[in-house]
Amino acid sequence: MTEFSWHENVSLNRQSVSRRRFLYGASAVAAAGATNFRDVMSVQAGELRKQGRAMILLFMQGGPSQFETFDPKPGTENGGPTTAISTAAAGIQIAEGWEKTAQQMNDIAIIRSMTTKEGEHQRAAYQMHTGYIPSGSVKHPSLGSCIAKEIAVSERELPSVVTIGDRGNLGSGAGFLGVDYEPFQVSGRSVGTVPDNVGPIVGEKRFTRRQGLLDKLEGEFAARGGETVVNNHRRIYDKSAKLVLSPMTKTFDFGLETAETKERYGNSEFGKGCLLARRLIEAGVTFVEVRLGSWDTHKEVFDGVKGLASKCDPALSALITDLKDRGLLDTTLIMWTGEFGRTPKINPNTGRDHWPRNFNALLAGGGIKGGQVIGETAKDGMGIVHDPVNIPDLFSTICTSLDVNPAKENMSPIGRPLKIVDGGKPVAKLFS
Amino acid sequence: MIRPVIHVAFVFVQIAVLAVFSAADEKQGASSAKSISAKDVASEVDRQILAELQKTGVTVAERCNDEDFLRRVSLDITGQLPSPSEVIAFRQNKDAGKRAALIEKLVDSSEFGLNWARYWRDVIYFRATEQRSRFNQEEFTAWMAEQWNKGTGWNSTVTAMLTASGNVEEHPETALIFAQGAHAEDVAAEACRVFLGIQLQCANCHDHPSDIWKREQFHQLAAYFPRMAERREMKGMPEYEIVSVNTESRQGDFMRENPEMFVQMFDRDNDLKLSKKELEAGPKRIGRRIASRMKDGQSDEMQNEGMNAEKMAAGRIPAKALDRLFAFGDSNKDELLTVEEIKSAQPPVNRRRGSTEHHMVDLKNPNSLGDVIDPKFFVSGETLPRGKSDEERRTAVAKSFTAPENPWFARAIVNRVWAEMLGEGFYMPVDDIGPTREARYPAVLDLICQNFVANGMNPKWLVRTIASTEAYQRKIQSRPASENELPFASATPVPLRSDVVFNSLVQVFGITEDEMNGRTVRAADKKEKKDKPRTFLQSPRFLFDTLFGIDPSVPKDDVMGNIPQSLMMMNSRVFRARMSAGKNTQLSKILGEHKDNRDALNELYLLVLAREPSAEELKICADYIAEVKDRPEAFEDMMWSLLNSSEFVSRR
Predict the structure, then answer these.
(1) CATH tag for B251-352 (out of 1.10.238, 1.10.760, 1.10.10, 2.60.120)
(2) Are residues B129 and A136, on separate chains, in Cβ contact within 8 Å?
(3) For B577-594, what is each residue's pLDDT tens digit?
């Protein structure tokens, strides 16, 4: 099957399928043995579906407690004082503090049977971003960068991968895929305004004039043997200048958003990050990650999560509502998760410690069938009863939603091919 | 006279053969090369490279001019841009030996060690899997700078790094181990990649696809490192230590490694199963007997195990550990543990830390611990028996790594330094030079390696030799289109490392490093401020590095720059203030001192690019001044253009 051989050669355009691409696709299919026009059209329809696919990752750094979020065990010793609330989806209960999210449950699927072996923050966060465990010898690209490489439009003014919030490197970079897929970092405090260095500080006219001078002066070094370096440099400066002068930078600026909208997202830094994520997706960005820290609740887990939920609940709910209203939810996958879960047993500090054996994740949009729960944990929360989902399974599911081939290989610098996802099977129930 | 080197093709199936041949080579080299100076080696290197190039008919670029040489050699050796007065003085110097004298001066300056220490800092920390290891990077840089400035043999430096332990700030030579969280497999893979240029870690999970290494050989290397651990102590700020774990302080490891004996020791009702009660009651008499019998055993290995068994027998298992043991181990939930259940139990998350022997995971049963593997060095075949202490193991592996008989050790560093200075190495990439890769100019590489060994593996000698070659001093040319073409016919313009660009900016702006964050540092504060490593993580140099840092092991061709970098160079408010013609800046000084535009331009070019402008550039700038009509504004734009030029961030 040559289905993927021609994807590799052509950059996909999220806006339109060009005539040339259409013909190229047609000839590739013909070469593969498909002879009639309907086959060609069905392949092309697959391409059309792929257009506009995007993903938002809401990453809960530190490892959120499953008991205080989406797998409560009220009335049990391990469950603690946390009570459960009903949701819009019949039969599904989640923890108190998530009332707004509960109303959206028909669009949300909960995976309660996530499992990993990594119980250390960095290693687990790296795995949750790349699908691989860390290794000094290969810098694995994040799933977001891999996805951008497959489905983002190359000639856009905005970067295709954006990370909002904490700067820490959690394996969220482009790794060996290189600078084209490196996430553009927006620090939490600058959310809502055009980020540092993006605006031309001398005025557009002078900026353009300077650029013209730079371009002329580069000629000398190019002529003296620096041609390759100059050409690379020009390419990057052209892209940067395009961004600086682009009206698209207004996407970062909340000037025109109403107070009511900001209120709906909750006025926290994380809430603003989610609003920015929505605006970026609308503007055509492929992958946005918004981070919320402080989930490492070794002490006072109940109070801690209460505070975090008050930031997360309105933001998540508003994000789903807004994407739905704009007709973008079907093509945008939202995932909420952390790097691992927390111990069923409550420790002497009223906290919970690291627990990679079972934790939960939420998926919404992107063709995911909401209103269902995948997997189940034991009554006391000690382990998974059925349908365990490991990280490769989760990543394969994401790839299915975004129409990306998880077995696609990227070549590492030492000539070792690495699949986007190594092993794993998509969770079929999420799409039925 | 230098003996012609017999080049041995690198396609050995038998590694032992390779080691023997190279050892013979090196011995001969050592005896005959003792008296050979850097200069003589450099000219022999040039003779051989030129002979090869002439065979292919490639045009060899001529010698670069003095301006280019001064900038190149200053940036490469010390990481510093020459000042305008240095440029003028060097050009006016009529001494025929001025280039050699300059190389001597630069290699003897303290910036030499610092520049290369920062290179090694990037090599090590760029691949850190333990992000907290950044804590000791400044101490590491200072330590490595001292080694390079003192001319410490590379073998001694690497030995210190492989055998390091203790508090990571007091013992910064722990850097590589700390950066890999003291995990045996990760440390083995990194040490091998960085110090031997061999990528063995693919063999972690399978036999190497394109090399000759077997999976077992990788694990035999990792078996030198299982007894290290990273320990954290909270004293207000966390402190980290690399420690040796030589005794089975953890009962869990003993249990997993000796499940039959473990069951026997506690099994009071002789049903070959252990209940919680039996475990709580402690070991039976027979358990103690087993322990003492083992202790009397002859071999070290038996003695060691015996000690542990005795310790085990004397102790009780805490209630918490018992609960965990049953939660993880009792897979059929019958409240009884069998030998099989213990064997198949998933090891706890952190088990890889401080296990006293290395295990090779059985890939068909990844949850099991796997077989114990004994240390064996894949190049020479040297071995170490099981049961040796951490100190013995790491001393042994350091000796094997750095032995003159191990050809990869000298090759890796010589190739790295050459590639860093010329933009391209004998092997590319520099961390994948294994036995199935082919070197360009293999005889030249061997020649330098032999003499490097004969000169005590002194890095100063190496840098001096490379800088003295004509191959290093050629004019730049764009890279040939064909990959197959022989390199070194011309110099290659490549991007400068983050620290070097940062140094250049500091110098061009005429400010201190701390002022690069946009604030003016008062003299009083300067005194008070000590170079604390943790403040380094907030320093302008580090912040700049987070944006401009490049992994020095990646071929320069693959380094492209990125958008956030160019945005910073174009639009940073800090830089803009430093490029202003109006305030107390370098530009305002130039404009004040030189009323003639041509003179001012000359000064500006000398300051930013360490050369004078060409006639064409003068014309472009004159036209621009005429177009803008505002002298200060036009000069600000010209300075902006020079700082944003590819030349400013490249080696030329």
Answers:
(1) 1.10.238
(2) yes
(3) 999 998 889 999 999 999
